[in-house]
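Study this:
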Amino acid sequence: MADFSYFKRLDVAPEATARLPLYMIVEAGVPVPTLILRPATIHNTRFHNESMRRLERRQKGGERDAFERLLRDVDRELFAQHVIVGWEDVTDAHGTPVAFASDVALEYFRAMPDSLFDQVRFFARDESNFRQVIDAASAAGNSPGASGGS
């Protein structure tokens, strides 16, 4: 039987995070705000399960109009709860640093223009941003201490 275990290196760990610098909102001389995100995919089970529950509930409630807006609004809430885990150099309108908290992240996402929030969404949904670099020998179980199978 052929061994295709090298595909394991493409797996995304549930605890994986990635950094997204928001270069597009920076003024000269100001540090770049950077979001630290978990994947917004099936690999983040809390996000995925809650997303499915909310969408089903809203669709049953007759909110089929403006589906993209609905999906974006749901994502703003879910990203604040289950996707973003921190940030660096985020400031308010007066340049004062803002400490990370989920409720503050929700305010931040709600204040973002749709086009910018969509960039955050697309980044978090792209699993390639969260893949850990694993050498092929480890993925195939050929390195010392590697367990085969599974």
Q: What stands out?
A: The chain has one domain: 14-131.
